[in-house]
Amino acid sequence: MSRVLIIEDDTSIAELERDYLEINGFECEIAARGTTGLEKALNENFDLIIIDIMLPGMDGFEVITELRKKKQIPVIFLSARNSDIDKIRGLGLGADDYMTKPFSPNELVARVKAHIERFGILTRVSKSSLISAGSLVIDTDAHKVTVGGKEIQLTAKEYDLLVFLAENPNRTFSKEKLFDRIWGMDAIGDVSTVTVHIQRVREKINTETEKYIETIWGVGYRFNM
C-alpha cells in the first residue's frame, strides 16, 4: 500500500484529501505544521507528499528546499496561491506538480496515482543495469551486448556509441553531437567516423526484423525503443 504524507494546516482540507485517498487504497498521514511535516518526510518512508505553501513554522517552499537536499520522492503542491510566480517557484524548487484550491478530489487522486506510478518506473529503470529493446540486451555492469541470447563483440567506441544512443531512446543526435560525446571535443579525427561506426554497430546488432538505429536524413541518428 502506497503511503502519502499530507502537510496541511487546514484540518477540513487535510481530512478531505485523506478520505479520498484512503478510499482509493492509500495510507495517509497528516502533519499540520511545516516543521513537523519535514521531520516526518525525512524520517519515515512515504511514496508521495502533498504540501500546502502557507504553513505555520515553515512554509511549503522551505519544506521542499530542505527535503530535496536528502530525498527524491514525488511532491505535489496544493495551495490557494495560484499566481504564475508561485507555480514557477514551486516547480523550480523540485515539485512534480502544482494544484490550486479549490480542487477536485478525484483529480488529486488521479495525479497522485500517476506520479507514484511514474516515479516507480523511473526508480526501477535507474536501479537496473540492463537496457533492452526487442531481442537486444545491453548489460552495462558486465559490459556485455547480446542479440537473441548471442553475445555480440563490439569495439570500445562501438559499445560506447550504442550505450549512449540506447540510454537516450527516441532522441535524434547529430553526427557532431555524437562525435563530441563519444570521441571527445578535443579528439583528433573527423565526424565521418560516426557514420562508419554506426554502420558497423548496425551490421552487428540488426536482425531481419529488428532495426534499432534509424537514420534521420539531414539530422542524425536515433535509437528506436
What kind of sheet is the major sheet?
Answer: 5 strands, parallel
Helix content: 40-55%
**Radius of gyration in whole Å, from Cα?**
23 Å
Terminus-to-terminus distance: 31 Å
Percent of residues in beta strands: 15-25%
Shape: elongated
As for the CATH topology of the largest domain, it is: Rossmann fold
Tell me the strand order in the biggest sheet. Answer: 2-1-3-4-5
Unreliable sequence segments: none
Number of strands: 12
For the record, the CATH class of the largest domain is Alpha Beta
By CATH, the superfamily of the largest domain comes out as: Response regulator
Structural class: alpha/beta
Total count of helical runs of at least 4 residues: 8
Overall average pLDDT? 89
State the order of secondary-structure elements, H for helix, E for strand. EHEHEHEHEHEEEEHEHHEE
CATH architecture type of the largest domain: 3-Layer(aba) Sandwich
The domain tally reads: 2
Q: What key attributes describe this structure?
A:
12 strands; 225 residues; 2 domains; 5-stranded parallel β-sheet; alpha/beta; Arc Repressor Mutant, subunit A; Rossmann fold; 4-stranded antiparallel β-sheet
Structural commentary:
With 225 residues, this protein is an alpha/beta fold. The protein is 44% helix and 21% strand. It has two domains: 3-127, Rossmann fold, CATH 3.40.50; 130-223, Winged helix-like DNA-binding domain superfamily/Winged helix DNA-binding domain (Arc Repressor Mutant, subunit A, Orthogonal Bundle), CATH 1.10.10. It has helices spanning 11-23, 34-43, 60-67, 84-92, 105-127, 156-167, 175-183, 192-205; strands at 3-7, 27-31, 48-51, 75-79, 97-100, 130-133, 136-139, 144-147, 150-152, 172-173, 213-216, 220-223. α1 crosses α5 (105-127). The relative contact order is 0.09. The model has no long low-confidence stretch (mean pLDDT 89).
